[in-house]
Specification:
The complex is a heterodimer. Chain A is built from 4 helices and 4 strands; from the N terminus they run E-H-E-H-E-E-H-H. Chain A is an alpha/beta fold. The longest helix of chain A is centred in the first third of the chain and has 17 residues. Chain A is globular, with a radius of gyration of 12 Å. Chain A starts with a strand and ends with a helix. By secondary structure, chain B is an alpha/beta fold. Helix content of chain B is 38%, strand content 21%. Chain B has a 5-stranded mixed β-sheet. The chains are: A alpha/beta, B alpha/beta. Chains A and B meet through helix 1 and helix 3 of A and helix 3 of B. Chain B: It holds the Pfam family PTS_EIIA_2. Chain B: It comes from Oceanobacillus neutriphilus. Chain B: This is PTS galactitol transporter subunit IIA.
Chain lengths: 92, 162
């Protein structure tokens, strides 16, 4: 089971939109996962056992796990590349 | 204060569109565009400052396949009525990209008056469809009249309107 965190500034709207796309991507890839949504400020406490962080905002800290930008899920830019990065980050 | 049950229904019309905006900075643009919300009494006094502060902390610039876009918004506590404003700049101003924080030339601004997070998501989904449509964005960027901009956006938000 892979743990994925999706985070945005407010922690709700943008991350929900991105989370929907991440779920879709992982379902299609047949990856077993648990996904949680959070805000940037809470990310500091929640990342400890995460396998991947997908954000819609600038993350300055290094959480020691792969962190990807999900902004392309809003605009369609590089959407396929982001999906591939998500899958490869969670494939052993 | 507006407590009617329609506050969650989106308000958007030609009065909420500004063309050929001359602004020297993103702050100036945000001040000018947010004035449209005050004119309609859609927001509380704190809205303008809240938008500017949020943009500093969590920038909303987005690269698209067409013009650079920003989607500034504020916490729902500053908003009375679900609403949208669209500003098209004469010359691009610098915002910052949402995730990288890098400077980004922005020509189209969708400013959101959001009353709650559920509404925010619905609005973002509609906007996301516009942001993915290169031709539509280019048409909005090059529109000569507010009516043209309104007609470009209407199909995406029609169901959300009051």
């Amino acid at each position: 089971m892979k743990k994925v965190i999706v985070a945005c500034g407010g922690g709700i709207a943008t991350s929900t939109l991105i989370a929907d796309k991440v779920r879709q991507t992982l379902d299609e890839a047949g990856i077993d996962y648990r996904l949680t949504q959070t805000t940037l400020s809470e990310l500091v406490y929640e990342n400890s056992d995460a396998d991947l962080i997908v954000t819609s905002m600038k993350v300055e800290s290094d959480f020691g796990v792969p962190a990807l930008s999900g902004a392309g899920f809003l605009t369609g830019i590089n959407e396929e590349a982001i999906k591939e990065q998500i899958i490869s980050a969670l494939s052993d | 204060m507006n407590h009617n049950k329609n506050r969650n229904k989106l308000k958007f019309d030609k009065d909420m569109i500004m063309l050929n905006i001359c602004a020297s900075s993103s702050d100036e643009l945000l001040k000018e565009l947010s004035q449209l919300f005050y004119d309609k009494d859609y927001v509380h006094d704190s809205f303008k400052q809240a938008i500017i502060k949020r943009e500093e902390k969590y920038p909303t610039g987005l690269r698209t396949t067409s013009a650079g876009v920003a989607i500034p918004h504020a916490d729902p506590v500053h908003v009375k009525q679900e609403s949208l404003a669209v500003g098209i700049l004469k010359d691009a101003v610098t915002f910052h990209e949402m995730t990288s924080g890098e400077p980004l030339n922005v020509e189209i601004v969708f400013m959101l008056g959001i009353t709650d997070s559920g509404q925010h998501l619905i609005m973002l989904k509609a906007l996301s469809e516009i942001l993915r449509d290169k031709e539509k964005l280019t048409s909005i960027r090059n529109a000569a009249t507010k009516e043209e901009v309104f007609q470009c956006i209407l199909p995406y938000i029609n169901e959300l309107l009051e």
